[in-house]
Amino acid sequence: MRKKVYLSLIILPLLVCLVMGGGAAYMLSYSIESSTHSYAYRWKKLQEEYPSMRQWLDSIRQSHALRDTTIKLRNGLRAHAFYLKGDSACGRTAICIHGYKDNALGMLYLAHIYNKVMRMNVLLPDLHGHGKSEGKAIQMGWNDRKDIEQWIPIAERMFRDSHHPSRIVLHGVSMGAATTMNVSGDKGVPSYVKAYIEDCGYTSVRDEFADQLKAQFGIPEFPLLPITSQLCQMKYGWNFYEASSLRQIAHCHRPMLFIHGDNDTYVPSWMVHPLYKAKPQPKELWITKDSEHAKSYKDYPEQYTAKVKAFVSKYFN
């Protein structure tokens, strides 16, 4: 009997560890190691979702106005981006940052605002492990901020105008919004980055994953999320608890426009309120009625365009 008790005291903890370890490995694979969307998929979805934009999309494709560029990152990997030159840019550039499992082409609806309507230059980076950018796992906007910080001076040099000062806005959606907010709180961002726009970004990776664990699987945060976070730290050098847009924007004193749909359940609508509160002035907030995740532009294209144009123009003059 005593031997059985001893065996159970050894075996049961081992079984628990195996189950938790297997669960953490699955969660990591499911959340940041799964495949991302192809360019063909994204181009088709753009045509379907934004029929009014088809003529412009076809024109930039046929005229080869949408061009490619690549850089080598400090980590040794190659990063890719598309770009469009504006015909009256006068040193004005938008860097548009895509969301989770998307790619640079997914931001062409934003490029339409900046390039077609506002006549600006546009850079559309593929984040780590998306599109043509190298990388084994999604970085959820955390280490992505370092990649974007390498793209910023490259964009400034690419589009420099000897007659006008360089002015850049960062505009991100979902994970791209988290990336944008994470950049905004870092020291050393060049002064020619004049403004930020975040559309439906999350407070932190921990908050987002905890919410989705409950929503998709009915699983509480503890103990699976901390274990998975530690596994991510071991494999990729970052963890879910350090990746906080909420902490980053508390250090941002440049203008930021917050956009969020009030019917967003993927990145819950409540997240925008602590983010907005944490951000020092100047700042603006626009909540779109009945919009689901990343659908504010689709639901309100004219208002979205006008809001972006007014906000950016205010700080580019």
From TrEMBL:
GO MF annotation terms: serine-type peptidase activity
Domain of life: Bacteria
Transmembrane segments annotated in the record for this chain: none
A single GO BP: proteolysis
Domain Peptidase S9 prolyl oligopeptidase catalytic: 147-317
Pfam families with a match to the protein in the record: Peptidase_S9
Alphabetical list of InterPro entries matching this protein: AB_hydrolase_fold (IPR029058), DNA-binding_regulatory (IPR052920), Peptidase_S9_cat (IPR001375)
PANTHER family given in the database record: ALPHA/BETA-HYDROLASE, ALPHA_BETA HYDROLASE FOLD-1 DOMAIN-CONTAINING PROTEIN
Protein name per Swiss-Prot or TrEMBL: Peptidase S9 prolyl oligopeptidase catalytic domain-containing protein
Organism: Prevotella histicola F0411
